[in-house]
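Posted in: Protein Modeling Q&A

I'm a second-year student putting together a small comparison for a lab meeting, and my supervisor asked me to include a predicted structure for Drug/metabolite transporter (DMT)-like permease. I've never done this before, so apologies if this is the wrong subforum. The sequence is pasted below exactly as I got it from our records. If anyone can share the structure token output, I'd also love a short note on what stands out.
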Amino acid sequence: MLKRLAHPAVLLLLTAFIWGANAVAGKLSVGHISPMSLTLLRWVGALILLFPFARPHLVRDRPTIRRHWLYFVGLGLLGFTSFNALFYVAMGYTSAINAMIIQAAMPLVVFVGMFLFFHIRVSVLQVVGFALTLVGVLLVASHGHLETILALDFNMGDAMILGSTTIFGVYTILLSRKPRVHWLSSIFMLSLGGALGAVPLLAWELLAGLTFAPDAQGLLILAFTIVFPSILSQALYIKGVEMIGANRANIFVNTVPVFGAILAVLILAEPFHAYHLAALSLVLGGIAIAERGKRTVQPAAQ
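Accepted answer (user: helix_wrangler)
Welcome! Here is the predicted structure, written out as tokens:
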């Protein structure tokens, strides 16, 4: 049973489920906690919660961390702060539909990056699987009417979403080559980078007069964000990338909008449609096909 739970597909699907829940939490946070306050406090909270458990591993991993501290902190700044901050700003200029469509290109960013930097190729079945997951995402984004995709306008916000997608793709590529340390040491150092990167963003929000104290709902969302998206999902994603590599792991990201849509039905009482089920089938089917076409590669440095 434990071996099944530790299977990379299970870990990565749980990651995507939590990220989908985080999207719903983001909707519920509007007006209850300011975005940059949430960004900083989630990583500060993660550091406080993690430290008692991570401390012995940080001590043992100190030589490696000392040599590569800039790598860890920079990776956290890239994947934890820059991605989220750019995404939050972009959502003020574009629609959720456009955001989902553009973010569905993330596995392609990883495919290309892994080939250019590490000469890791993808198989035909992996490309076919990616294409199917993309159709599933488009089905969710268009609410079952794919023809509406052609009528969408792309703007500055979409360029920002593309930028944030590229950032997380690069984060995933670099994550596959991170130095070998305990996962608690990894997540603590990455969270430190996330917190440091969020400080100037909160300063900007304060100067702009956009910061406000969280209310009870805001604090509940913050607590959820600290435990699940900030700690648990990141740990699962790191482990998933370690186990099967960046190319295979990143395809699972395309289940996020599907899980997000289903959770929106359950939590936000949005209507359930047949296209939700069809999209989930396409995305999971695409992942299954991509997994059948996996290539054998040398394990990355952990």
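A couple of things worth pointing out for your meeting: Confidence is low (pLDDT under 50) at residues 296-302. Residues 62-90 form the longest helix (29 residues).
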